[in-house]
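S1.2 Input.
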Amino acid sequence: MMRRPPKQQYAAICYRVKKKGVYEVLLLTSRDTGRWVIPKGWPMAGKKAHAVAEREAYEEAGVKGKAEKDLFGFYHYRKTLSNGFKIPVQVQVHLLEVQEMLKDFPEKGSRRLEWVSPAEAAERVNEPELKALFHRVAELMQVPASAQTKAIG
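S1.3 Output.
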């Protein structure tokens, strides 16, 4: 049996800087299994990858901000479709600095949102490659906030 190439999705690791230069990342629960995930979605006609990541962050978590155009990394998982089939998916991840949290957004009430440290996020997610991305975020965010633009961007 031939293996199909993975389907592509785009995602955002949403982060914010708290007082004293402490960084947090946003996790949300998936609507089907309730596991911890990041906002992600399928390609959209006419939108670049980072713009899709921004849109998904808005729709799923109610956050607005600018996603980095350069990708931060990838992770893979198997998505279960409504017919029960599982398909391989490659997720291209972009960092997104949150500038605003909205009170109302399309998927409000269907997910739980939590701001946590990057290390805590790595503990909560299931996908090994996504865990590694959060560990990388934790390393980058040990740099003082004043020097962060160069470290992340």
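S1.4 Remarks. Residues 145-153 have pLDDT under 50 and may be disordered.
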